[in-house]
Design a protein that fits this description.
Blueprint: H1 2-17, H2 20-30, H3 36-43, H4 47-59, E1 63-68, E2 71-76, H5 79-93, H6 103-106
Antiparallel strand pairs: 1-2
Helix pairs in contact: 2-5, 3-4
């Protein structure tokens, strides 16, 4: 049973990272909470697109929303997510980019 829980959690994390917009959102929230309008501007997407991706990340259990009056603040659901992203970034930097196709241009992944 425990293995299934770990498998499902890693699958959700992998799904979240499989999209560049969701990855950018997670990386932005690594440094602290953010608001949709600011995140949309920072990432360069419409608020509607950002809202759809935030809903996905909430559904995956990676971000949480905290209402603040008329605004909603988003943050990582657990500080360990930020540390996991830091670890993954370190691993990616150690990979030879010539060995892996670019998913943006090669249609892979």
């Amino acid at each position: 049973m425990e293995m299934l829980i770990h498998r499902d959690a890693l699958a959700r994390f992998g799904y979240a990272l499989s999209d560049t917009t969701r990855t950018q959102i997670l990386l932005s929230l690594r440094s602290g909470p953010g608001y949709p309008s600011e995140l949309a501007e920072q990432i360069g997407v419409s608020r509607q697109i950002l809202s759809n991706h935030l809903a996905c990340l909430r559904g995956c259990g990676l971000v949480v929303a905290a209402p603040e009056g008329r605004r909603t603040r988003y943050e990582l659901a657990d500080p360990r997510i930020g540390r996991a992203l830091d670890d993954l970034i370190g691993l990616v930097l150690a990979v030879d980019p010539s060995c892996c196709p670019d998913p943006e241009t090669d249609g892979c992944c």
